[in-house]
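Allow me, if you will, to draw on your knowledge of protein folds for a short while. A protein sequence and the structure tokens that stand for its backbone fold form the material at issue. I would ask you to consider whether the tokens describe a fold that such a sequence might reasonably adopt. Thank you for your consideration; the sequence and its tokens are set out here:
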Amino acid sequence: MQLWLDLSSVGAEVEAQAQAQHSRSSSRSRNKSQDPSRESSRDRLSNSGTLEREPAPPPLRPLPEALTFDMRNVQAMTDIKTEIGYARAWVRLSLEKKLLSKHLRELLADTTLLRSQYKRTAFLRCEEEREQFLYHLLTLNAVDYFCFTNTYPTTKLPYRVLILPSRKASQTTANCWVAISGAHGEATPKIPIPRNTYEFVFHHKNLGILSTLRIGHDNSGLSPRWLLDQVFVRNEVTGHTYIFPCNRWLGSGVDDGSTERLLVAQLLRTHKSAKTPAAQPTTPQTASTHLSTSTIQHMIGDCVNAIVKWHYQSKREKDSNSLSVLLCGENGLVKCLEQAFICGFKSARLFGKNLFIWDFFARVRDEFKLSLCDDNSQQTKPSCGVNYNCRQDQEHRAIWRCYCHLMDEVDSVGAALGKDGRFQLFICLSLREHWLHRMLVPMSVTRVTAEMYEEQSFLRKRGLLTFLRQILEPLDEFDIVLENSLTQGI
């Protein structure tokens, strides 16, 4: 294909210009990072109270925008065997990076090359038509394309990881690791995080659009506790940058006791390959966050509608909109159901952070197991606490057994998940098994629910409980396929 031959011919001339520009950019970046006056000024603004914001994170060095940089990345793809294949990959990559018009303008500015390769009557030799052509290509920058990411799933790509711990507990003696999943169904193994550095690069087969990141440690050493703010991951070829907000502790005996957390990706909408934007302070999810019942109802309804719409989308649309984000994202179904279970939770007011929603779920399991023992022995024990008019009903006993089985499966994963992580895993598994809405009524009539929830809660008020059941029931029509990163192999 003539295009790739033209690119190869002009590459040497552009290479020197790209290296000079990259050198100047690196020098400015080093000077900025070595200027202590700028850092201290930002700190004084934060400490003075006049500007309440978190300090900006160290920026990822911008990727070069030179034509030859993309050419080298394409030529390094071992799964392409022909010149036409290289040219198509270059066009897809340039289109995805919103640099196609810029690259072609740079290429077509070489009049000597055009004269040597094209006749005088050729389309590219007409300056007016060429300018109109480049202008039309420029309008493609208004749309986000993933034509390179989705086309080459077997290509090995470099990924840069930038971890931003909180200043309150930025160091840990534990051995830390990350594992990343993407839309192609691939997931990395646990990648060790190098000690004394929070920025590193690893290579892996194309993960596609990133969806989740699991980060944790082995809780070793004298001071293993670690307060993590957020994680950035950038594809070093396409320039796509993802942020994984956390703002939670990792360590036993702190927060919910989790030593690993599942973080959901947010694709940063940046201009080309600009600097990583400043980190926005995030609010940790705690039981002290209360919303009105009507707000929670609207949130859950929007989540269910989004999941239903996702199942009717085309494969291409599904690849760019992960189901994991709809389930476990910041405004996903798990977070909304967490708010529903927090609403009217007496222990949140009486004991603060000492009790979690998972503690309530565990006590319900104990009550269900006592009820099953009652059925097996055909004896009535008031201590079991369940007050059903149809105790021998097959459906109720099946729900009790399923609930206890799922809870035991989640507990078998180990204590590393923590209580919030186990709650998330239980919701995802019960949704996959089509038991989620069926469990609500048996849970609502237990003695534990009466003890731990107020009458105006979702589990005790008939109208709110009916809403939860009816809004979740349509999800039974779909096969919920969860990523391995969500299920922990269960």
Q: What stands out?
A: Strands lie at 156-165, 176-182, 191-192, 199-205, 210-217, 226-235, 241-250, 260-264, 266-267. Residues 2-33 form the longest helix (32 residues).
